[in-house]
UniProtKB/TrEMBL annotation:
Residues 1-31 are annotated as: Disordered. Residues 7-24 have a biased composition (Basic residues). It comes from the Eukaryota. This is Ubiquitin domain-containing protein 2. It holds the Pfam family UBD. Residues 15-112 form the DC-UbP/UBTD2 N-terminal domain. InterPro entries: DC-UbP/UBTD2_N, DC-UbP/UBTD2_N_sf, UBTD1/2. It comes from Hibiscus syriacus (Rose of Sharon).
Length: 114
């Protein structure tokens, strides 16, 4: 029997603290509108890559949320995080989910729209 502060009682053991991806650069400068279009296209087609729709929905919600809320979403959905920036995750059945950096953060060469 362990105390409430022991490591065994702190959770499932598959939860990693997530963080934002490192700064990245798109091959060519893009506008926010173009970035949003790329994101929408990815999320519209993501369930066709396999896995469960509920997990894709949780990953989208986490990608669009503040970091602390994203952590809560990932934990409550039972997502197993391989890369702490959420680029590679698994569900409890072992299905792999790969997220491109453009759905998780903005590129450093984002150009302003007029």
């Amino acid at each position: 029997m362990g105390c409430a502060a022991s490591k065994r009682s702190r959770g499932r053991g598959n939860s990693k603290k997530i963080r934002k991806p490192k700064p990245w650069r798109h091959p060519e400068p893009i506008t926010r509108t173009q970035l949003m279009q790329m994101r929408d296209e990815f999320w519209d087609t993501a369930p066709h890559y396999g896995g469960q729709k509920e997990i894709w929905d949780a990953l989208r919600a986490a990608a669009e949320a503040e970091l602390s809320l994203a952590q809560a979403i990932i934990d409550s959905a039972g997502v197993i995080v391989q890369n702490v920036d959420l680029t590679i995750c698994y569900d409890e059945r072992g299905a792999r989910y790969e997220l491109p950096k453009y759905v998780l953060s903005e590129p450093i060469n984002l150009i302003p729209e007029n």
